[in-house]
Design brief:
The chain has 665 residues and is α/β, with parallel strands linked by helices. It is built from 25 helices and ten strands. Helix 10 runs antiparallel to helix 11.
Length: 665
């Protein structure tokens, strides 16, 4: 529920000019009620706004009295899932006393009342802002420092000067205007009446910018499925469940191996991806958002993809085409590491947007030129370069399409090889460009979060971190993370070549373990260097490669290795989901053992001669911990805490899935 406050100005000529016998403020009050406001308060005093916000226990929707818009615009703003605090942004030219703003990556980074001097403005404040519970202290401070006059815009401008992160909501297809006289009010109302609101909302349920395959082969007809789902009362979670069933059926058919099964599986895989898009569209169309739904959608997407890899692996083995599990394990490891870099680069870019000109930063150099070129390409929507840039990173739609086409036309082996080749090239491309651009940003992101959580450190890393504080500066988080990856990769190479007798195998494994555990030495240090956003991905790659290496050395069956890595991947996606959706740390985090504790346990079961059984048990144990954490952390989320004025706002991670795969629910 939301508390709505209409903040009026001391002099407003439109107030005396009712439309169809209804004063504009009364019309706005009725629309706010239909948008879900529990209570609507009308006041001309910012001090009263401060008092209301100070005692509120729910989001506050602050609205100017000159806003004339579709009720759906207000409902979308009130229910927006992108962040706790969201402002309406218009392209209309600012009138006297109205605030203009500049936005980057969907966030307000500056605002001012003097449009003449604010030469780099990208929009106009739309007269409405929803302030989340955690940002209400910032609203209190902003309202108390403003006086009468054009109060709504002054309060908003003051709010942008606090530590609150303000996301933006732009109007598409619907109508919203700041109407300051009778003529403009009548024009706005007439424009509202000319739009089919429900039809516009259905079109708005489709993401504005998506990837090539999704845009042209899914979104052209998926809204009809969305409309049908809404009519029959099927919710987003139900659609997600159906998409999972389709993917499971496709994986089973891929494993069966017959030509007809491969073709049918490809069709089901495509339809499952359509449903995967529909669940997000349905959530936006019906405004059914929840932390649990968003988490479930994120986890289901990854689980479906990796189950399909497993199905392809079975198909390769059944057809006698080679070792399918080796390819499936490689694809899972590569894709998970890529997603970790997507997450943290997105968070880094968000942080850079909040601090566009940090001390000592330079927009020049190769990184600056790459950023400018990227921005130009992104702005040229629909061009060949635009679609190439979005496709080369191998997003989920293109992955589904590649798998479906190759398995139907060729065989599962070709599918897995194609995924690895395109995925590897995409990883090299994005890693190289992002590294250069990140150095030019000269901001950090891991220094503002709980690194113990997102590094997934356990007790051994904690002890090593205390020891590592005495080491010189070169032994930073990223160099030792890269060393851990190199050590695991070397151990894997030696395992594939054969480690000799038992004594040699033990010595090599223990040496490799020590080298990997060295990545725990910087655990207690600040991760505030420009490239430290790569540390979580490096630790994931090091852990997964180490698991593969000792399993090869111990002769553990491929399905067992895949199962353990599958559960580990879900565990790590749960952590990134908490970053993206601002979720709390899992209560059962210590029971996950940390990457260091898991590797020690794994080596112990291998040395004890029960590698396969031990790994299967560990996978089951971790899955139970993940499930219990999901129930306690997502199905029963805690109420958002208020943030005290001046406190750091942390990392929102809104753009974390840079390939456009994140569908907030």
């Amino acid at each position: 529920m939301t508390l709505a406050v209409i903040l009026t100005r001391s002099a407003y000529p439109g107030q005396a000019q009712p439309v169809d016998g209804v004063p504009p403020v009364d019309r706005l009050r009725d629309q706010l009620g239909r948008a879900g406001a529990r209570q609507v308060v009308v006041t001309a005093d910012p001090a009263e706004v401060a008092t209301l916000a100070e005692h509120a226990t729910e989001p506050v929707l602050l609205c100017a009295d000159d806003l004339v818009a579709h009720a759906a615009v207000l409902r979308h703003l009130a229910t927006s899932p992108v962040g706790p605090t969201v402002a309406l942004v218009l392209t209309d030219p600012a009138a006297t006393g109205q605030a203009v703003l500049r936005e980057e990556r969907g966030q307000v980074v500056a605002a001012g009342l003097d449009a003449g001097r604010f030469t780099d403005a990208t929009g106009t404040f739309g007269g409405a802002v929803r302030v989340g519970v955690e940002d209400l202290p910032a609203l209190v401070a902003a309202a108390r420092q403003t006086g009468p006059g054009s109060a709504p815009d002054r309060v908003f401008t003051a709010l942008t000067g606090t530590d609150a992160t303000i996301f933006t909501h732009r109007v598409r297809l619907l109508v919203a205007h700041r109407a300051t006289d009778a003529e403009s009010i009548n024009d706005a109302v007439s424009a509202i009446g000319s739009v089919d609101e429900d039809k516009a909302e259905l079109r708005l349920s489709v993401k504005e910018k998506d990837d090539f395959f999704t845009t042209y082969f899914v979104s052209t007809w998926s809204p009809y499925v969305t409309k049908l789902s809404a009519r029959v009362g099927l919710g987003p979670t139900g659609v997600t469940a159906l998409s999972v069933l389709f993917a499971l059926a496709a994986a089973a058919l891929f494993g069966y191996g017959a030509r007809w099964a491969a073709v049918l599986g490809a069709i089901l895989l495509y339809l499952g991806f359509v449903l995967d898009c529909v669940d997000g569209q349905l959530a936006r169309y019906t405004r059914q958002f929840s932390p649990w739904g968003g988490w479930l959608d994120t986890m289901a997407d990854r689980a479906k993809e990796y189950v399909v890899y497993a199905g392809l692996a079975v198909g390769v083995d059944r057809a006698g085409l080679g070792n399918g599990w080796t390819l499936a394990i490689a694809a899972l490891t590569l894709q998970t590491a890529r997603h970790m870099t997507d997450t943290w680069y997105g968070a880094l870019h968000d942080e850079a947007a909040r601090r566009p000109n940090p001390a000592g930063a330079s927009g020049g150099g190769l990184g600056g030129r790459l950023s400018q070129a990227s921005n130009r390409v992104q702005a040229d929507t629909g061009s060949l370069s635009y679609w190439l840039k979005r496709t080369v990173v191998f997003p989920i739609g293109e992955r589904w399409a590649l798998i479906a086409l190759t398995v139907a036309l060729f065989n599962p082996l070709v599918s897995l090889v194609a995924v690895l080749v395109w995925g590897g090239l995409a990883a090299a491309y994005t890693l190289a460009l992002r590294t250069v651009r990140a150095r030019s940003m000269r901001v950090s992101v891991l220094g503002r979060v709980d690194t113990t959580l997102y590094r997934d450190d356990g007790p051994v890393a904690g002890w090593l971190g205390a020891l590592g504080r005495r080491l010189p500066g070169w032994a930073g988080p990223l160099p030792l993370g890269v060393l851990a990856v190199a050590a695991s990769a070397t151990l894997l190479g030696l395992a594939l070549a054969g480690l000799g007798d038992t004594g040699v195998r033990v010595a090599v494994v223990v040496t490799g373990l020590v080298a990997v555990l060295a990545a725990g030495l910087p655990a207690g240090r600040s991760h505030n260097r420009p490239l430290d956003w790569l540390v979580p991905a490096a630790l994931r790659a090091a852990e997964y490669l180490f698991v593969i290496a000792i399993d090869v050395a111990a002769g553990v069956p491929g399905p067992v290795t895949f199962a353990l890595l599958f559960v580990l991947a879900l565990h790590h996606y749960d952590l990134t989901a908490r970053l993206e959706k601002r979720g709390a740390a899992p209560e059962l985090r210590p029971y996950g053992l940390g990457w260091d504790g898991r590797l020690l346990l794994l080596v112990a079961v291998v040395l004890a001669g029960v590698a396969a059984a031990g790994e299967a048990t560990l996978a089951g144990y971790l899955f139970v911990i993940l499930t219990l954490g999901a129930v306690s952390g997502w199905m029963l989320p805690a109420a958002p805490a208020r943030r005290t004025p001046g406190a750091g706002h942390g990392v929102d991670g809104r753009a974390a899935m840079a390939a456009g795969e994140e569908r907030n629910r």
